[in-house]
Design goal:
single chain, alpha+beta, three-stranded antiparallel sheet, 2 helices, 3 strands
């Protein structure tokens, strides 16, 4: 009976180390294409830069395009200030 809690703990540790699935949404692209197939064989492809580009790929297929919920636009660089040279005062 003393081994039962340890066995349960060991099985739980094995199940917790199951392989994780790959990230579906690529945060570098703003638009995703989701395809549908019988028995769950579809996939999500987030490699499009615009809805028209994605719609061209989805045309004629069981698919739809949507905005990537995990899109992270690149950070904006602050605007560069023009350097003004002051004239020396005489």
């Amino acid at each position: 009976m003393r081994m039962l809690p340890w066995m349960i703990l060991g099985v739980g540790a094995i199940l917790a180390t199951a392989p994780a699935t790959a990230q579906t949404y690529d945060p570098r692209f703003p638009v995703c294409l989701q395809t549908y197939a019988p028995r769950g064989g579809g996939y999500i492809d987030c490699s499009f830069t615009s809805l028209p580009q994605c719609n061209m790929t989805a045309s004629g297929r069981a698919a739809e395009c949507y905005l990537n919920p995990f899109f992270a636009p690149p950070p904006q660089q602050p605007p560069r200030r023009a350097h003004r040279h002051r004239r020396p005062v005489h």
